[in-house]
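Database export, one record per block. Field names are fixed; values are copied verbatim from the stored entry.
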Amino acid sequence: MTLSTMPLPALPWLDEETRLGRAEEFAQQMHRRRSVRDFANTPVSRAVIEACLIAAGSAPSGANQQPWRFVAVQNSQVKHRIREAAEAEEREFYEHRAPQAWLQALGPLGTDADKPFLETAPWLIAVFYERTGLSADGSRQKRYYPHESTGIACGLLLTALHLSGLVTLTHTPSPMAFLGDILGRPKNEMPYLLIVTGHPADACRVPAIGRLALSEYATFV
């Protein structure tokens, strides 16, 4: 079946100087984005989170299947359950599963198994991807590039949250099956990422780390 088409939505015409200025301003804004582990409990409205999720939902996806699913968690009891389960997995990771080289790489960042931010931050956004789709008659449908598609959507979500004046942390306890259990997700959905978001705590500090220069990660041919 061939999809119907529509005209491309109009884009504003920009001269090259304006185009470059916008690109550089956006790059500078995003360069200020940092992962934060010290959150204030200051509320953030659901409307802001919804708008950021709408931005995430505009991501391209394999065969336009849009395999991402987001669960935005504000309920304090649910956040407490997620923290308890995540810390249990993290203790196993730090004490038994993590190779020494990985622990050494994490050492300068000062991370450990305690994750109080999972309760302090006003919102947790659990991200899932559909391993397979389910049609109305219950039959399964293959999903194409679900990991890549969901990763792009998460990038847009992090960008939208940052441009909304919020800070974020990408948290990946492993394994993450507990997220599906706690949040009651269907078995065809796989946990992908937990995004913590809100306002930074007063006097919040972050590691003084650098980023690669353009010449170190980009090549022009």
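Remark 1: The chain has one domain: 34-198.
Remark 2: Residues 34-198 form a domain with the NADH Oxidase fold (CATH 3.40.109.10).
End of record.
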